[in-house]
Every structure is written in C-alpha cells, then in structure tokens.
Amino acid sequence: MMKEWATVISWKNGVALLRCEPHSGCGSCNARSGCGSHLLNELGPESEHQLKIAISQPLEPGQKVEVGISEGSLLRSAALVYLTPLIGLIMGGALFQILFVTDAFTAFGAILGAGLGFLLARTVAIKIEGKSDYQPTVLQISLPPAAIRIQQE
C-alpha cells in the first residue's frame, strides 16, 4: 500500500477536498544539500495535487489525513499511461515502414500510432476510473488543528 499524508482543504456533504504535496526522491535522509533528487525537485515548478475523496466523518480545514492506494493498481495505471502510447508509437512506425518504406511515412505512422495509443489509454482510464481498486482510501485521520494545544512552561 502506497501511503501519503494530505491536508484537508474543505469537507462538504461527505466529500473531502485534500491537498497532497509532492516529495522528491525517497525523503529518508537529511542530505538535502548534496542530493541530486532534491535539487531537481527544486528546479521544477512548485505544484500541489488535489483530490476528492468520499468520507462520512466531518473534517476541518487544516486537518491531516493519511490516504493510501494499492501498489498493484498504481503500477497498472502507470503501465496504461506510459506503455500504451509507446507500444502504439513503435507499432505504427513499424507498420508504416513495412507498407511505405520511406522515413517520412514511418515518422507519420509513429505519430499516428502514439496518438491512437493515447486515445486507447484515455478510453480505458475512463472505463476503470470508478472502480474501487483505483480509488484512494482513508487510512488514518489526525486530530483537528483546534484540538491540539501546546502548553509552554
């Protein structure tokens, strides 16, 4: 199970809007100044991911929620998104190379095959989108921010 902590943005009628912040690399060490993965993450645009998840328990903005998704469904989704257009590109280029023998038609066939691969991946993704295997689940819910008090001596 792949797990990640997310912050609640809003909760309304049993649906929570969560914000997940991407982490670079493994995140298991403190060698950030010499870590290539951390440096590459700093170069890219700062992005955050939002997702909606059904949960019956009322949540407050700022509250932390641990969500998870199975590794198998994540790997199947990645294979669908990356391999389907790649296979289409290779097969389209090979087919047009056999049929027309020129490089221009081969390139056109590769682009056409990749486009058809993207369309196939999109169609399959829409079909499996509602299945429970591909939906994140709530694993843990932290206390609301107002419930945590720190006493200073």
Name the descriptors.
5-stranded antiparallel sheet; OB fold (Dihydrolipoamide Acetyltransferase, E2P); 153 residues; 5 strands; alpha+beta; RseC; 2 domains
**Run of helices and strands:** EEHEEHHE
Please give the radius of gyration in angstroms: 22 Å
Q: Detail the poorly predicted runs.
A: none
- Summed up, the domain count is 2
| Quaternary structure type | single chain
Query: What structural category arises from helix and sheet content?
Result: alpha+beta
**Mean pLDDT across every amino acid position:** 85
CATH structural class of the largest domain? Mainly Beta
Dominant shape: elongated
Largest sheet: 5 strands, antiparallel
Please report the distance between the alpha carbons of the first and last residues: 41 Å
Organism: Yersinia thracica
Transmembrane segments: 79-99, 105-125
InterPro entries: RseC (IPR026268), SigmaE_reg_RseC_MucC (IPR007359)
Keywords: Membrane, Transmembrane, Transmembrane helix
